[in-house]
Amino acid sequence: MEAILEDHDKQDIECCKFPPEHQHPNCMNIKVPADDPFYKYFKRQCLDFARIYAGPKPGCKLGPRFQINTISSYIDGNFVYGSTQDIASRLREFHGGRLKTNKVYAELGLKDLLPMKMVEKDVGCMARPRNVYCFDAGDERVNEQLMLTVMHTMWMREHNRLADILSHVNPHWDDETVYQEARHIVAAEIQHITINQFLPMVVGRQTVAKYGLEPEKHGYYDGYSPKVNAGIRAAFQSAAFRFGHSLLPDVIERYNKFHEKIDSLRVSTVLRQPFNLYKPGIVDTFILGLMNEKANAMDPEVTTEVTNHLFEKPGDGFGMDLAAMNVQRAREHGVPGYNKYREYCGMPRARNFYDLVGILPNKTVHRYSQIYRHVDDIDLWSAAISEYPLPGAILGSTLSCLIAEQFANIRRGDRFWYENPGWPSSFTPEQLAEIRKVTIGRIVCDNSDDITTVPRNTFMLGDPMRNPFVECNSHHFPHMDLTKWRDTSYDKK
User: Fold this and answer.
1) Tell me: the pLDDT tens digits for 321-374?
2) N or C: which end of the chain has fewer CB within 10 A?
3) How many angstroms separate the Cα of 8 from the Cα of each of 5, 12, 14, 123?
4) What is the crossing angle of helices 175-193 and 146-169, to 10°?
5) Is 172 one of the annotated binding-site residues?
6) Using CB atoms within 10 A of its CB, is residue 345 exposed (0-12), middle (13-18) or buried (19+)?
7) Which residues pair with 310 in a beta bridge?
8) 350, 373, 374: which is closest to 360 by C-alpha?
9) Which residues hold heme b (predicted)?
């Protein structure tokens, strides 16, 4: 996540309401054409856009502008725990190794919600009702999209579930030991789910194998190298991993435990407004919505809910344009065009627009020929989300390449990767075997209030033949045996 410039009240910098000579020097406004089919009705001539904080180059040398990342690049659960000691401490209960929660409906037998954000209450939220608070978590974007808040809630619950069991298995462990080991396990679960379930679905199993991203079935991983830079590349951050914006639906659907649709909410109405989660029992209905609602197609189209109404303020009628912001952010970061990355990923460089026929939809190629002067000018994000997908994948060849390469570097360059042997932090073979049982379905089953069935592959839509709904207590979703974490050294004392 980039460090975006803010004003003294920690609000996004406003640029467009000032004449150019009075704007903040880091304003990089997005110009709106006079004939824009939507914004023309609101007489909008530009959209606010602020540059990222500039960071120093290694050795404070002169050169291209560097951006500051505010979170860890590793898959370490930083969205649960934070990327600094201050954030981690703010979120801890300091009792039993647990994270802080909001036990708002404990008397109803419902699981805890995320803690309330008591400091800088309105930062990251808008239209907050009186006496209702935003949520707090390890990543400040927790309130940005309601379904994201739901995922944060599940993983907070998972940490506390593990902490409670570890405290029972090892009653002599103090708060710090329980907290750190539960955190260690959560990070391992996220890593395992990422490479075992998420990446094969997104980039395809063939690409996963090509980049050495298949999880070990037994034993340890021997691919760690201290020479591999696990940092996030600009193309990944500014373009490639924003592919999900094409998949966003127009509405967020809610379902009951029988997987029957209840209702839906416009996406634009739940951005920076997570307050629905304070209603008793509603968290499950949104989790079930994530499992049952169809994503939009992976294609050049992005829902108007985020291209016309992103972070729309009540009464305005319009918001920001996420697609335009993606393109502008990559340009601000100096990310080369799509053609450059095709070549980087081992594919032929397009000599003209019509070399892209068969790679991108004909309509998209024609549009590019009308918009850009040269094929080399095509922006990476726009073209990459438009590629026809690889077999067995959601994404096309360029995005699959960039994303797989980034995750391969993260795995190879992380000394604390869950499969690594020989370090004080390494899991035992028995513990590693338990972590390999974990699936996103198990996480949902353990951390919802009353969800009893989920699709066998919980990342995919349920289907009676290809992906049936199965019981949470079935053999498809085995439990981790946390007795493998019993501290036998204490027993010998």
Assistant:
1) 999 999 999 999 999 999 999 999 999 999 999 999 999 999 999 999 999 999
2) C
3) 10, 10, 12, 12
4) 130
5) no
6) middle
7) 320
8) 350
9) 245
